[in-house]
Amino acid sequence: MAPTFPAFLCSLLLCAAGVFGQAYDPSKQLSVGIILFPGFQPLDVIGPLDIIMMLSASHNVSLAMIGKEKGPVRGPSPPRRNEPPTAYPVQGPSVVATHTFADAPRLDILLVPGGMGLRVLNENNDTWIPDFIASRFDELQYLLSVCTGAAALAQSGVLKGRRATTNKASWAWATQFGNGVNWVPTARWTEDGNVWTSSGVSAGIDMTYAFFKKLMGVAAANRIMNAIEYTPHVNEHWDPFSVVHKVPGADASRPLGECVGPAGFEFECS
Ligand SMILES: *[C@@H]1O[C@H](CO)[C@@H](O)[C@H](O)[C@H]1NC(C)=O
Ligand SMILES: *[C@@H]1O[C@H](CO)[C@@H](O)[C@H](O)[C@H]1NC(C)=O
Questions:
Q1: For residue 74, what are the CA distances in angstroms to 94, 151, 200?
Q2: In this structure, which ligand is nearest to the CA of 31?
Q3: pTM given for the model
Q4: What is the CATH number of domain 24-78+87-244?
Q5: What is the distance of C-alpha 257 from the center of its chain?
Q6: 82 Cβ contact list (under 8 Å, min separation 6)
Q7: Do you know which InterPro entries this protein is assigned to (predicted)?
Q8: Nearest CA, atom 14, ligand 2
Q9: What per-residue string of b and e applies to 206-233 under the rule 16 or more CB within 10 Å gives b?
């Protein structure tokens, strides 16, 4: 496949000059890892994964699905303490972990999804995810979380002094973790240095679009949005769910609706 825009522009050292932000280098393979745990929220994983899959048609990307153990990682959450096991009887599906935290390859990008299973891990004092994040943070170009995955980032210590957001329906639970985290109550997603965090579930798709737009360029990112026929929210400050879920600090004076349309096209909303 022909490399996309950065190839000749980078030869002019524009990329090195930071004109396009942290640009993707088409001569190198981009190593992406996604964390899996029993009780992950399916769309937190599958939404960004769909975009990464599409991207790999034109970009040299490798993917490691990283679990505590190799093999199928169940979608349904194990029972939580003091709660019946049938909270979500139809949660699923299982996704296969190709690697464990012990044998995962070098990573450029790590994405941490959320889901009820994170609470179970926490109740069992199982810190493998925050431990893995902390151990790999220095080698990463970017760390991303979707939904309550931000709680694991906070636990790992990497959010100290950074802006972050999380699922507004789970705000109280997720924001109890970490020290010195600047939790942003009104954000569809946040970007602070090389750490990106998104609000709940579907917000991960909007964040992933914004992220790859920055990394790979507008044209490549827009092509994927239009191929999957998704109309992304492009305003990181649009966050009606902070109002819906009554998050402290939510700004109820902001419009709940937002105009969206196909990426890269002019459109009007009535
Ligand atoms: C992707 O990059 C790897 C490592 O640099 C290389 O071995 C492989 O041939 C590349 N694949 C493609 C399709 O360019
Ligand atoms: C987790 O740690 C807390 C605090 O040390 C302890 O009270 C609790 O019993 C532990 N839970 C499990 C399942 O080990």
A1: 4, 20, 20
A2: 1
A3: 0.90
A4: 3.40.50.880
A5: 23
A6: none
A7: Class_I_gatase-like, DJ-1/PfpI, INH-QAR
A8: 124
A9: bbbbbbbbbbbbeebbbbbbeeeebebb
Instruction: Report the nearest atom of ligand 2 relative to the CA of 124.
Output: 13
- One-letter amino acid at 66 equals I
Ligand 2 centre from 175 Cα, in Å? 20
Distance (Å, whole) CA 218 – CA 41: 28
Q: Which amino acid is at 194?
A: N
Query: Which are the contacts of 192, defined by CB distance < 8 A and separation ≥ 6?
Result: 162, 163, 164, 182
Dump pLDDT digits (tens) for 129-167.
Answer: 999 999 999 999 999 999 999 999 999 999 999 999 999
Q: What is the pLDDT of residues 198-250, one digit of tens each?
A: 999 999 999 999 999 999 999 999 999 999 999 999 999 999 999 999 999 99
Length of the chain: 270
Pocket residue to mutate for ligand 2, from 123, 125, 127, most atoms within 8 A of Cβ: 125
d(CA 33, CA 41): 16
Q: Which atom of ligand 1 is nearest to the CA of 29?
A: 2
Pocket of ligand 1 contains residue 60 by CB under 6 Å: yes
Phi, psi of 96 (to 5 degrees): -85, 125
Alpha-carbon distance of 36 to 14, in angstroms, equals: 37
Alpha helices, DSSP H only, in 13-41?
none
Structural domain boundaries in the chain? 24-78+87-244
**What whole-number distance in Å separates Cα of residue 75 and Cα of residue 54?**
23
